[in-house]
Prior knowledge:
The protein is of the alpha/beta class. Helices cover 45% and strands 21% of the residues.
Amino acid sequence: MQLRQLEYLVALARERHFVRAAAACYVSQPSLSAAIRRLEHELKVPIVRRGRRYEGLTPEGEVVLAWAHRMLAERDALRQELSTLRDGLTGTLRLGVVPTAMPVATLLTTPFCDRHPHARVSIESLSSADITHGLAEFELDAAMTYLEDDALRRLPLYEERYMLLTPACGPLGTVASARWSQAAALPLCLLNSRMRNRRIIDECFAADGAEAAPAIESDTVAGLYAHLPGGRWSSVISHAWLHMFGVPEGMRVVPLEGPARGPRVGLVTGPDDPPSVLAGALLKVAREAGVREALDELLRTYLDER
């Protein structure tokens, strides 16, 4: 059995088409098919369901695919560790980030690049479910996400603290704090219901006996913020977003009081133990980055200005 055969199998499972998989591996389709048939012969199990076209993997094939991901990840980790010993940390760190944590990703990626100038970072905005899949399939080295899955190695970074961002001249623009039920009565712009953050916020409204009915919804934090200048709309934001977007002119940050608390956001790595060299290096940076303290200090600054 050769690692090249495992690479072909992973590509076939990803592309679900022999010709596309062969093109992704820079080989001919007959060469890829022959390599997988040899793998089936060596392992003495059917791996691919074959008809007139690719029809998926057999149950045995799914087991082989899981081991293929693991063995290729170990191969990459070996190469990376040897490269680190020789030249310092190199390669590309594959980092998944839930959209609502993207504004603070730089608090980890910048010190990581400062410490490892020969390494690169590839950041992808993904849902929590896609992050879980990407880590399990070794498609990601690490991720910034909500800490919900106990099966993953995790390092808490901060707890989301929700604030009302509202016009200074509006009905809640001068109060020291507001309840969720008061915020629900304002003209709101929020993330849409497909976003995990929005579902959390809806739970917070419900815990205070209210229901939000936003006039405008967005699937990105940037899209939400684009509607706030002008004094018409209010929004509920995570304090972490202040790191990138700040407070638009003419608006104020008002703490929201109520029975609900925000979830924790943290850095997680996949099932490999120990984690890859790149993931381990990012974990070390994260432990020293002081993300929670930096965000709390930034929030205090905006509240003091108010």
